[in-house]
Amino acid sequence: MLKKRGENYSLRLYVPKDIQHAVGRKEFAKAIDTSEVVKARTPHNYRIPLIGLTSGMRINEICQLFLDDLREVEGVLCFDINKKKEKRLKTTSSARLIPVHPELVQLGLIEYANKLKDAGHDRLFPLLKSGIRGYSTDFGKNISKYLNPFYFFEGISINAQCF
After folding, report:
1. Banded model confidence at residue 162, pLDDT cuts 50, 70, 90
2. How many degrees, rounded to 5, is the angle at CA 31 between CA 26 and CA 33?
3. Is the dihedral of CA 97, 24, 145, 124 positive or negative?
4. Residue 66 gets which letter from DSSP?
5. In total, how many domains does the chain have?
6. Full residue range of the structural domain in which residue 75 is found
């Protein structure tokens, strides 16, 4: 258990067993719809959870990515988490390079990014708009309608769970 400074509650970290259980449930399958229609119309609903699961990045870090934040460093494809342009970081030390999981490449991340670049976009998820909490506001609301029943069923307090 982790205690948050100055707060009266503890955070319980997800363990691999929790994540395996969550991704096997139908609510999670609905949240990460892999149909071609969803991939084309709302690619963020397909790609953001996969990036989160394979990278450990915060949801807003993923949602606010620019295409040039996906870059090769010393021969390794990475997500460049930085404060360039209008992006936000949780802390100064949050700036970092995160290797892209090979499964994301296999699932077409590079081709997806190239199509966006060819279409004149500069963001990895151009349909997301900035809100109160950054670019993750709308995405977080939408995905939580699928995942909240899972949390409730499993007895997990949403404010007390973290990755």
Report:
1. very low
2. 90
3. positive
4. B
5. 1
6. 11-154
